[in-house]
Design brief:
10 helices, flat, single chain, mainly alpha
Amino acid sequence: MGTRNSFVFYSSFFEAIKELEDKDKGIISYAIMQYGLTGESPKLTGYLKSMFLLIKPQIDANNERYENGCKGAEYGKLGKDFGKMGGRPKSKKSIDKQRKKELEGKIESPNNPPRSPQLNPNNPPNEDVDVNVNEDVDENEKRERLEKLKAISSPSTGLPAAKSATAVTPTISSAPLGKVGFPKGNGNGFPSPSPKPSFKPSSSAAKLYAAFRTLYGSQTHFPYHARKEDLASMEILVKRHGEHAVENKIRILHSACKNAVFWFTKKGFSEFIVSNLIHHWNELVPFETDEQKQERLSLEKTREVAKKIFEERQKERQKWQSNRSKVPTKS
């Protein structure tokens, strides 16, 4: 590779170099420029050499692409000169093919004038040509087909006679569709779809769903975004687990969303939805909040202090009783 006037310096080179110290930045930058412009490999050691070996294939690929482009431009100039000189001489096979096409009339030549009179100036077109066109061909064919059908459907064959091709106008009754046994339509000629049966939840499911929406609104101060399947899902949960169990799970989910306890309640009350009751029913188990934990620890500490005081008093009482037994009695 010879000396070049420019080369491509990618932003990835800069991102890799900018984390180095100033001295190393200058060394590796000069090495890249030296190799990109002159093709001379620098003498580097350590991690600078490793970094250069990672950058070198990209520079080689760019230089190879540039050299191929230069070769293509050079071949293009030569091709122009070859065209001026007449190009490649025709071979014997191509001459034979061209002669064969001329004989077939596919190629026009001085020895093979065009055959059509419109294209041959030496043979003007004949304007007095009498063209006889039979316009009754289609009618004759129709008659012949009709006669054949009549011959085939004669009484001796037992087949019904062919009827003449006359337009038959369908008769439509003026009676409404509902009176002749068809379902009444929706005005477009099609029967109206049967209405879907309305879903009626039980009173317990409706009460729990209302309490669920109230809990959401009291915590977020926004109305609950109800979904079509929520009430049906609540009905399924009540039938499967019972009203009391569903109520406990709703309380656990409310507390979990408030304290972001479980992985599916990390986003807070945006996860307080009925579908989470179904999908994470077994994961909604009672847990201890930070406040409850502090109360439990303070209660345990109070119990330990009371236990120590009780033990100390017990020791003092035993000591007093032992001293009293040692006192001599008067005889």
